[in-house]
């Protein structure tokens, strides 16, 4: 893989970090660069771009939604300095 192809691939990953090796292979093929997916992964790893799966976040349950609304309604009239009392910036 040429240095030019590596730069092109890294720029594409910077634009869209969730792009897959298969999609990178297709976009490089449009530029007449033939590279295997494993080569793409190895090249990205050498350049500090490692494949990670984003953590799944649980959806809010009805119980949690109700608790949030209750908290918000109870604290509607709390003065601004109350919230600043516990801030990290002190």
UniProtKB/TrEMBL annotation:
Domain Transposase Tc1-like intervals: 6-77
One of the record's GO molecular function terms: DNA binding
Pfam families linked: HTH_Tnp_Tc3_2
GO BP term, example: DNA transposition
InterPro entries noted in UniProt: Transposase_Tc1-like
Name of protein: Transposase Tc1-like domain-containing protein
Species, as recorded: Pogonophryne albipinna
């Amino acid at each position: 893989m040429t240095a030019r192809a590596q730069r092109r691939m890294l720029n594409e990953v910077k634009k869209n970090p969730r792009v897959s090796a298969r999609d990178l292979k297709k976009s490089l093929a449009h530029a007449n660069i033939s590279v295997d997916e494993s080569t793409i992964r190895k090249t990205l790893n050498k350049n500090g771009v490692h494949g990670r799966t984003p953590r799944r976040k649980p959806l809010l349950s009805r119980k949690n939604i109700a608790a949030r609304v209750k908290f918000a309604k109870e604290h509607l009239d709390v003065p601004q300095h109350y919230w600043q009392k516990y801030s990290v910036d002190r």
